[in-house]
């Protein structure tokens, strides 16, 4: 159902790869809610992903960019203002990648070149995006910038590896820049800490199936889906959330406030009983 929450708003959506991507679902909802926007991803992602299908549906131009390159980001903002006919109202950073995770390097045997790439792609790119936007004065007053995060920024989770450090930095950048951008331009910056979700990046997490089952049992409302994340992101882009900034907001069905639930305990006890019979 559409509420026209983003009618007249212009945006840039980074990170839609295929129809499982959280950014893809957010783009679809933003389109439904009346926004116009551009889409951006790396040249490789554009070749191997399905972004052109999304672009057609949403009538959006696709602008290739490596989010670690300031020059590429400048082009994305300048070109977006050109095709959309003015300054931007909302930006989505939905970008994450770790070569250490991909190559199964454990946290106590990290490759440091990979580690630096993880930080650059998954966290510093957010600072670069914000700094470029501010220098170009590309975002309208009361605009809203959002990045996607994960609870591993605060709590240790087996298998999340150096992405945990990247997410902690991402959330910190959101606060530090949020203060400056808020003070000077009334621009809001937040992170949404989403439930584990089965996407290309999500599937890279070691033991994703067990993790999804565990968080589902632990969360009183169940895991939040990518579609539900899209709904919430639209609210954060809209004028209905004008005074929310510098926040990391858990969108996880209650998981982050739990220590043990009935459903998880039942499963745990079942495993203990089975163990007793061995
Ligand atoms: N899937 C989950 O379980 C989950 C949970 C919480 C947060 N998140 C976060 O959500 C965001 C989106 O991930 P997703 O799950 O939709 O997976 P996804 O694989 O669909 O999206 C990740 C995107 O990052 C892009 N990317 C990688 N390197 C890039 C670079 N150098 N420049 C520009 N783009 C680059 C990829 O091309 C891809 O589109 C990520 O920040 C991820 O960490 C995911």
Give, in spatial order, the strands making up the sheet with the most strands.
Answer: 3-2-1-4-5-6-7
Low-confidence stretches: none
- Classify the oligomer: single chain
CATH architecture heading: 3-Layer(aba) Sandwich
Structure ligands: nicotinamide-adenine-dinucleotide
Structural class: alpha/beta
* Number of contiguous helices: 11
Per the principal axes of the C-alpha atoms, what is the gross shape?
globular
**Beta-strand level of the residues, as a percent range?**
15-25%
What does this structure look like?
It contains 11 helices and 7 strands. With 278 residues, it is an alpha/beta fold. It has one domain: Rossmann fold (3-Layer(aba) Sandwich), CATH 3.40.50.720. Strands 3-2-1-4-5-6-7 form a 7-stranded parallel sheet, sandwiched between helices. Strand 5 (139-149), helix 7 (163-185) and strand 6 (188-194) form a beta-alpha-beta unit. The mean pLDDT is 96. The protein binds nicotinamide-adenine-dinucleotide.
């Amino acid at each position: 159902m559409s509420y026209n929450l983003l009618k007249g708003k212009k945006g840039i959506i980074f990170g839609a790869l295929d129809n499982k991507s959280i950014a893809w679902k957010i783009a679809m909802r933003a389109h439904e809610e009346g926004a116009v926007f551009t889409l951006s991803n790396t040249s490789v992602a554009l070749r191997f992903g399905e972004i052109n299908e999304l672009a057609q549906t949403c009538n959006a131009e696709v602008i290739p960019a490596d989010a670690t390159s300031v020059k590429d980001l400048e082009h994305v903002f300048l070109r977006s203002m050109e095709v959309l006919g003015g300054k931007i109202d909302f930006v989505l950073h939905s970008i994450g990648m770790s070569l250490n995770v991909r190559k199964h390097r454990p946290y106590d045997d990290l490759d440091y070149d990979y580690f630096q790439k993880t930080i650059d792609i998954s966290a510093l790119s957010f600072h670069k995006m914000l700094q470029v936007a501010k220098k170009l004065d590309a975002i309208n007053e009361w605009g809203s910038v959002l990045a996607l995060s994960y609870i591993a920024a605060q709590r240790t989770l087996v298998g999340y590896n150096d992405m945990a450090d990247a997410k902690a930095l991402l959330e910190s950048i959101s606060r530090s820049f949020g203060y400056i951008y808020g003070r000077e331009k009334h621009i809001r910056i937040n992170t949404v800490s989403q439930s584990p979700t089965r996407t290309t990046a999500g599937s890279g997490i070691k033991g994703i199936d067990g993790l999804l089952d565990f968080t589902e049992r632990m969360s009183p409302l169940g895991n939040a889906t990518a579609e539900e994340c899209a709904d919430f992101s639209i609210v954060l882009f809209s004028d209905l959330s004008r005074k929310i900034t510098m926040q990391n907001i858990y969108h996880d069905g209650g998981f982050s406030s739990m220590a043990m639930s009935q459903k998880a305990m039942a499963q745990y006890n079942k495993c203990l009983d089975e163990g007793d019979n061995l």
